[in-house]
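Q: Make up one entry.
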Amino acid sequence: MNFALVPVKALTWGKTRLSPLLSETARHAVSQAMLTDVLTSLRQASLVDRVVVISSDSSLLALTRQLGTCALEEEYPRGINGAVQVGSEYCSRQGATALLVLLADLPLVTAEDIDFLFQQLSGAPEALLVPCKEGEGTNALLRVPPLIAASCFGGGPSLERHLLAARRAGIACRVIESPHIAFDLDSIEDLERFAARPTETQTYRTLHGLGVLTSAARSK
């Protein structure tokens, strides 16, 4: 079975780099909108059998349930790799044979992007990586089986660390380019790029409603 796992940082700690332009309330709204976009695309993907969100934030877990997705209580903030480990173990117990870990701040990801990743699997134990737009970080990690290699998200050049973890596990590891998955909305510069092109996303609608897109466009 193909599972997807989305680790989500508590709203209090999320998107602080956007604070020069967004209030705390606005940052919370944007984080919720991005999660909505990611979960909507995952649920629309034909090759995903089940979607799980793990977080220590009760409001995000409530949103997850409203969207018809499995909510896994993290209990306390463990950091992204701790959350991924707990979530991966849960998915494995639930019968996952392939597990896609997808970050929650990817407003442009589509169901087609997600299905494409699963279509690249060979059937043998392996890991697939999708880098972020800067090329050093990792925005998606697809593992077969789910616990075959450690996750190494966060803290700079995670792509290289994931490649090293796969080599240590003795499995094949490939880097897959996906522009939509590569685009994470994490900085003011990202917001400016996002504002430049209207999209049919909850994130765009939320930012438009907050009046943020006009401000971001003017700051360019």
Observations:
- The mean pLDDT is 93.
- The chain has one domain: 2-190.
